[in-house]
Design a protein that fits this description.
heterotrimer, A alpha/beta, B alpha/beta, C alpha/beta, A: four-stranded parallel sheet, 8 strands, 43% helix, 7% strand, globular, C: alpha/beta, Rossmann fold, ten-stranded mixed sheet, two-stranded antiparallel ribbon, 14 strands
C-alpha cells in the first residue's frame, strides 16, 4: 500500500480532470483497496506527469498506478484506434503499420549519406529519430535538420535500420509485455555495435532509454538532442533572428527528467530573439496531449473533453503575441500544428533544432 | 457451350449479366451461348445475345443462397465449356468445387487475366474450361431485346438453407447519383468532417471505403466498391484510400484524383492526378483555397 | 464443435517480389478475414458455449509465422490449435487433404477470400467436398438448435438473413464489433503453455499454368511541391473538372 493521503492534489492538477469518470485520486484509492472500477476515460491520461510531480507522498501515479490499471483495461475495453496501433507496433515495430525498411527512407532526402550502424559497426553517436521522426512527414523534417546540424558540427554519427519503437507509450498504456519485447529487440540490436551515446529528439524515447532500459542491462549514455546542442552551444555562431518566440517545456524532458534549461540556453544564444515565457512554464507546463498513447486516441479524446490540450496550449501561446512556439519533443509538432489548423491561428511551430538551423543560414 | 449466369435480385436481372454476355459472345468458339436464370417470376429481358435461356423456375430459388446447388446440377446436366459469373457478393458464392474457378477476372480470352494480391499483381491463368468470376465494369454491356428460346428446367436442391429476411439499409444519400464524390479511406478517417465540408464545397457527397464503413465512421450506404455501390461521377477525390481492387471496382469516375501517403498505393494506377502526401495536411489547405 | 481455418498469406505491407513464375513475399501474416473468422468463433463460444478449434495452414516459408495467429486464437479463447504444412499447391488439394479431418466439426469458418486467392474459393471447395451448405460474405452468426442463422452481406449495407442447417461452412467477410485485443504478455504466456499439434496429412502438389505480371507503372501525373503549392494546383485542376 502506498502512503496516499487522499489530498486530491493529483486530481486538481490533472489537465483532463473534469472529463474523467474516475480521477487520479480515486484511481489511487482503488489501487490500494484492490477494488478496481474504470471506464474508457482511463485512456484519456496523456502521462503529463503533473500529478506525480506534485504528489506530496511521492506516489508514482503516471508510471505505475495508471499503467497497471490500464493493463487490466486492455483485456476488457480498448478503443479500436488504440488496439490497431498497438498491433501495428507488435507486427511492424512502428505505430503506422509501415514496413521496417521504410524507416530509413528519410535519409534519401538528404544531400549527404547517413552512415548505417549495421554497416559501419562503430560510431560515436547513435542517432535514434524514433518512429515519428522516421516515418511522419512533418517530423522527418526535424530528423533531417538534426542530421544536417550533426554534419555541420562534424559529429561522428550513425542510425540503425533495424530500430524498433522504443516503446515508452506502450509502457504507459499498460502494455508491459510489448514494452519488454521491444526493449529486448532493441537491446539485442544495440549490443552488436559500438557507440558512446544515443541522441534522440523524442522525449519519450529519451525517457525510456534513460530510465527504463537500464533495468534490462542498458548502460550507454542517453541525451536528448537539445541537451547535446546546449552542451556544444559554443560551437555555433548564430545570425540575428527577428522572431518573438516562446518555449513549450515537453513533459518528459522537463517535469519528468528535470531539464528546463537546455533549450533556454540555446534560445538565449540566438541574437535578436525576443523570448517570452508562457504563463504555465517549466514544471507547470501544460501537456500537448500526445503522451501515454494520447497521440493515437484523438477520436476518444475529441468525444470526451471540452477542449483538446494542444488547442488550449496554442491559444496560450497565441495570446502572448509570439510568432513561433519552440518545442523540443518531436511529438509536440504534429499536435500543435493540428491544433493551429483547427483554430485557424497565425502561429508557427518549430523544433529547437529548426530554429537553430534558421539562425545559422 | 458458354454458360452465363444471370444474377437476379427481386425478379430483375442485374446489369453485370449483360457485361458477361458481351464477353461470352466474344470468346465463343463456334459454340452457343446460353444464359441460366434462377427464380420465380423473373423478368427475362435483354437476354437476346444468348442462343438459349435455361430457366430454373422455382420459388425456392428466389433465395440466392440456394443458387450454387442449382448451378452445380445445371453444369452436370449441360456440361458447359466455360461458365461466366459476376464477381459480386452473390457470384462469389457460386465458386464450385467441381470446376476450377478463377476469381476477380478483368479480362478473358485464351487466358484469364485476374487481379490479386490486394491489387498488386495481375495473374494470367491458362485453363481448359472453368468458372470465371468477372469483375463488374470489365466489359461493355450487351443487352439485346430479342426473343430467345427458353427451356424450363427443374432441379433437386438437397440443402436446407432458408431465406428468412432481406434487410435493406435506410438510404440517406444516393452516392451513385452524385457528380462529385469525396472518398474517405482509412488514411482519412480522422477528417471525415473536413471531407464533408470539401464535398459540400464541390457540390458533391462523401463516399467511403469498406474499412471506414466497417468501423461505423460512415454508414454502409456510402460504401464504394465491390460490396458497395458503383459510382460514376465526374470527379472522384480519393482521400487516404489505398485503392484495393475491391474498392476500385466500384469507381467508374471520369477523373480520379488521389491523395495518399504511400507512393506505391494501387490507387495511383486509376488516378489521373496524384499527390503523395498527408491528407490531414492537404485537405485543410484545399478547403482554405476553395472557400477563400 | 467449430473449426476455424487460418491461412498464412503474403504480408502486403512488407511487399512482394513479382517474378513471372512466382510471387515471393518478404514476409507472411495470417489472412485478415480468417482472423475475423476466429473472432466470430470465439464470440460463439462465449455466447453459446461451443468448443472452438483452429487449424493453421502454411507453406514452409510461413510455417513458423502462422504460430502467432494460432496462439492469439487460443489467447482469445480457442480450445485447441493445429497446423498443417503445405507444399506449392492449390486450395483444391489442401481442401482434399483436410476434408476427412474436418468432418468432426458441425461448423467450419474461414475468410471468404485470402489476399492471394485467385483460384478457387477455399471455404466453398471444402463445403462441396463435405457435401454441406456454404454461405460466403458472412458478417454475423447466431445459433438456433441445429441451425445457424447468418447475415450475408449483399453490398451497400443490405444483407440476407439465412437459416442454415448444420453442418455448414461459412466464409467470413467482416465483423460487427471490433476484435478483442490480446495483450502481449497474455500472448507470451499462451506461447509458453499451449501446444500446437502438427497435422500429418498428405497434401498433393498441384501446379497450374499461371504467369504473374506486375501491373503497368501508373500514368498518373503527380503534383509536387509544398502542401500549399499542391493545394493551389489541385484547386485549379478541380475547378476545371467540375465546371
Amino acid at each position: 500500500m502506498n502512503p496516499c493521503i487522499q489530498c486530491g492534489v493529483c486530481s486538481g492538477s490533472c489537465p483532463y480532470g473534469e472529463s474523467l469518470d474516475f480521477t487520479p485520486r480515486m484511481l489511487v484509492l482503488m489501487s490500494n483497496l484492490g477494488d478496481l472500477d474504470f471506464t474508457d476515460t482511463i485512456w484519456l491520461c496523456s502521462s503529463c506527469y503533473l500529478c506525480t510531480y506534485r504528489c506530496p507522498s511521492g506516489i508514482k501515479i503516471t508510471d505505475e498506478i495508471l499503467p497497471k490499471i490500464r493493463e487490466i483495461a486492455l483485456e476488457r475495453n480498448v478503443p479500436e484506434e488504440l488496439s490497431r496501433t498497438l498491433m501495428n507496433i507488435m507486427r511492424y515495430g512502428n505505430p503506422f503499420g509501415l514496413p521496417q525498411r521504410e524507416r530509413i527512407e528519410w535519409t534519401k532526402e538528404l544531400e549527404f549519406d547517413v552512415p548505417i550502424l549495421e554497416d559501419v559497426k562503430k560510431t560515436d553517436v547513435l542517432f535514434i529519430p524514433g518512429c515519428y521522426g522516421s516515418y511522419h512527414s512533418r517530423c522527418k523534417e526535424v530528423t533531417k535538420t538534426i542530421a544536417r546540424l550533426f554534419k555541420m558540427m562534424g559529429v561522428d554519427f550513425a542510425i540503425l535500420k533495424g530500430e524498433k519503437c522504443i516503446g515508452d507509450h506502450c509502457r504507459l498504456l499498460g502494455e508491459f509485455g510489448l514494452f519488454e519485447n521491444l526493449a529486448a529487440k532493441n537491446m539485442k540490436l544495440f549490443s552488436r555495435y559500438e557507440f558512446n551515446k544515443i541522441i534522440t529528439p523524442d522525449a519519450h524515447a529519451f525517457n525510456s532509454l534513460k530510465n527504463e532500459y537500464p533495468r534490462f542491462g542498458f548502460t550507454a549514455k542517453v541525451l536528448h538532442h537539445s541537451q547535446f546542442f546546449a552542451e556544444h552551444i559554443d560551437e555555433f555562431e548564430f545570425n540575428e533572428l527577428d522572431y518573438k518566440v516562446t518555449y513549450h517545456d515537453p513533459c518528459f524532458l522537463g517535469r519528468k527528467n528535470g531539464d528546463y534549461h537546455s533549450c533556454r540556453i540555446i534560445l538565449n544564444r540566438i541574437p535578436g530573439l525576443k523570448f517570452v515565457e508562457m504563463k504555465r512554464n517549466k514544471e507547470m507546463a501544460l501537456c500537448c496531449g500526445a503522451g501515454g498513447g494520447g497521440i493515437w486516441l484523438d477520436s476518444l479524446v475529441k468525444s470526451r473533453v471540452r477542449e483538446r490540450l494542444a488547442e488550449r496550449r496554442v491559444k496560450e501561446a497565441y495570446k502572448l503575441g509570439v510568432d513561433v512556439i519552440v518545442t523540443a519533443c518531436i511529438l509536440d509538432i504534429p499536435m500543435f500544428e493540428d491544433a493551429i489548423k483547427v483554430l485557424g491561428l497565425d502561429l508557427k511551430v518549430m523544433d529547437i533544432s529548426e530554429i537553430m538551423m534558421e539562425a545559422l543560414r | 457451350m458458354i454458360l452465363v449466369y444471370a444474377e437476379t435480385f427481386e425478379g430483375r436481372i442485374e446489369d453485370i449479366t449483360y457485361e458477361l454476355l458481351r464477353k461470352a459472345r466474344e470468346i465463343a468458339e463456334g459454340e452457343e451461348v446460353w444464359t441460366v436464370v434462377m427464380g420465380k417470376d423473373v423478368k427475362l429481358e435483354g437476354l437476346g445475345a444468348s442462343d438459349k435461356v435455361i430457366y430454373v423456375e422455382d420459388e425456392r430459388l428466389n433465395n440466392p443462397a440456394l443458387h450454387r446447388y442449382a448451378l452445380k446440377k445445371i453444369i452436370e446436366m449441360y456440361k458447359p465449356r466455360k461458365v461466366l459469373i459476376g464477381n459480386t457478393p452473390i457470384g462469389i458464392d457460386l465458386a464450385l468445387g467441381i470446376m476450377p474457378t478463377v476469381i476477380s477476372c478483368v479480362d478473358l480470352n485464351t487466358k484469364a487475366k485476374a487481379i490479386s494480391y490486394g491489387g498488386k499483381v495481375f495473374v494470367e491463368v491458362e485453363l481448359d474450361g472453368g468458372i470465371y468470376l468477372i469483375n463488374k465494369g470489365s466489359f461493355e454491356p450487351l443487352k439485346v431485346d430479342k426473343d430467345v428460346e427458353v427451356e424450363k428446367v427443374s432441379v433437386d436442391i438437397e440443402h436446407d438453407v432458408e431465406l428468412v429476411e432481406v434487410v435493406k439499409p435506410e438510404v440517406d444519400v444516393d452516392i451513385t447519383k452524385a457528380d462529385v464524390v469525396v472518398g474517405v479511406g482509412r488514411g482519412a478517417q480522422n477528417i471525415v468532417d473536413l471531407a464533408e465540408e470539401l464535398a459540400e464545397a464541390l457540390g458533391g457527397v462523401v463516399g467511403a471505403s469498406r474499412p471506414v464503413v466497417d468501423q461505423g465512421i460512415l454508414p454502409p450506404s456510402r460504401q464504394v466498391g465491390r460490396s458497395g455501390k458503383t459510382i460514376a461521377p465526374k470527379l472522384y477525390l480519393a482521400l487516404g484510400i489505398s485503392g484495393a481492387m475491391e474498392h476500385v471496382e466500384g469507381v467508374k469516375a471520369k477523373t480520379v484524383i488521389a491523395i495518399n501517403k504511400d507512393k506505391n498505393a494501387p490507387i495511383f494506377r486509376i488516378a489521373r492526378y496524384g499527390v503523395v502526401g498527408d491528407v490531414e495536411e492537404i485537405v485543410p489547405l484545399l478547403l482554405e483555397k476553395l472557400e477563400g | 464443435m467449430i473449426g476455424v481455418i487460418v491461412r498464412a498469406v503474403p504480408d502486403l505491407v512488407e511487399g512482394l517480389e513479382i517474378e513471372e513464375e512466382e510471387v515471393k513475399p518478404y514476409k507472411y501474416i495470417a489472412n485478415e478475414l480468417d482472423e475475423y473468422a476466429v473472432e466470430h468463433a470465439v464470440n460463439l463460444k462465449e455466447k453459446y458455449g461451443e468448443t472452438v478449434e483452429v487449424i493453421g495452414i502454411a507453406n514452409e516459408d510461413a510455417y513458423d509465422e502462422i504460430d502467432e495467429a494460432l496462439y492469439t486464437a487460443i489467447a482469445k479463447g480457442a480450445d485447441k490449435a493445429y497446423k498443417l504444412l503445405i507444399p506449392r499447391t492449390t486450395g483444391y488439394k489442401v481442401a482434399e487433404a483436410l476434408s476427412e479431418f474436418l468432418k468432426k466439426y458441425d461448423m467450419i469458418l474461414t475468410g471468404t477470400l485470402a489476399v492471394d486467392e485467385f483460384y478457387g474459393v477455399f471455404g466453398a471447395t471444402i463445403a462441396d467436398l463435405l457435401n454441406v451448405p456454404y454461405v460466403g460474405g458472412v458478417k454475423g452468426i447466431e445459433l438456433e438448435g441445429d441451425y445457424a442463422v447468418v447475415k450475408k452481406e449483399l453490398g451497400g449495407g443490405a444483407y440476407l438473413v439465412l437459416k442454415v442447417k448444420k453442418p455448414a461452412v461459412f466464409g467470413i467477410v467482416s465483423l460487427e464489433k471490433p476484435p478483442k485485443y490480446v495483450p502481449f504478455s497474455k500472448l507470451r504466456s499462451v506461447m509458453q503453455s499451449a501446444e500446437i499439434e502438427e497435422l500429418d496429412l498428405d497434401v498433393e502438389e498441384d501446379v497450374i499454368n499461371v504467369r504473374f505480371v506486375e501491373p503497368p507503372k501508373p500514368e498518373v501525373e503527380f503534383i509536387e511541391g509544398s502542401p500549399e503549392e499542391v493545394a493551389e494546383k489541385l484547386v485549379e485542376i478541380i475547378k476545371g473538372l467540375i465546371r
